Amino acid sequence: PVCSDVPEAKLVRVSLTRNDDKPLGFRLQHNSSGVLVRGILPETIASAWNDQNPSLQVLSGDRVVEVNGIEVDPSWKCWCSILTELRKDTVNMAITRGRTDDLLQLVFPRDEVLDHLLPTNFFDSMTTHTECDATECCICLDDLGSDAVVQLPCKHAFHRTCAETWLTQCPT
């Protein structure tokens, strides 16, 4: 679905609770003006909320203005905080209806396989494989070898691609 051109002041309050193995299901985009909804994945907690609230559906182009009490701004620090909040069991969001300007800011990659919720340089500050003693990836259990490897703050080592998939697509 695509947003309608309604006044920005109209807030939609969304309250979601994880109660099964379904992902949250928001495709979000962080940019210089804040956080926009790129879409809602099917068969997710967000799509179920939309089905139950047809007059309040969250739509592509809508702007996220608050997540679990955190007011959204375009800063990197805020984006990282929002990502943490989106992984919690209960997520309360305030969303304003998108405007035409918001739709023009959305980026839709052609060959997108993963929904890259993680910032591009998220792993850059993480410890690399050469600095830890792990021999196998804690997700796929394959040998870490010479592949791109990161050690997260939990001290477990992962193939970079395994960690990215896990952190962006699996409920945590």
- What structural class results from the helix and strand content? alpha+beta
Provide mean pLDDT, rounded. 76
Tell me, briefly, the overall form: elongated
Determine the strand fraction and express it as a percent band: 15-25%
Instruction: Outline the biggest β-sheet.
Output: 6 strands, antiparallel
Could you name the ranges where pLDDT drops below 50 across 5 or more consecutive residues? 1-8, 108-116
Number of helices: 4
Helix percent band: 10-25%
Query: In angstroms, what separates the terminal alpha carbons?
Result: 27 Å
Number of strands: 9
Order of helices and strands: EEEHEEHEHEEEH
Radius of gyration: 17 Å
What secondary-structure arrangement, pairings included, does this model have?
Elements: E1 11-17, E2 26-31, E3 34-40, H1 45-52, E4 63-67, E5 70-71, H2 76-85, E6 90-96, H3 100-105, E7 127-128, E8 149-151, E9 157-159, H4 160-169
Antiparallel strand pairs: 1-6, 2-3, 3-4, 4-5, 4-6, 7-8, 8-9
Structural account:
With 172 residues, this protein is of the alpha+beta class. The protein contains four helices and nine strands, in the order βββαββαβαβββα. The chain has helices spanning 45-52, 76-85, 100-105, 160-169; strands at 11-17, 26-31, 34-40, 63-67, 70-71, 90-96, 127-128, 149-151, 157-159. A hairpin with a 2-residue loop joins β4 and β5. The protein is elongated. 24% of the residues are buried.
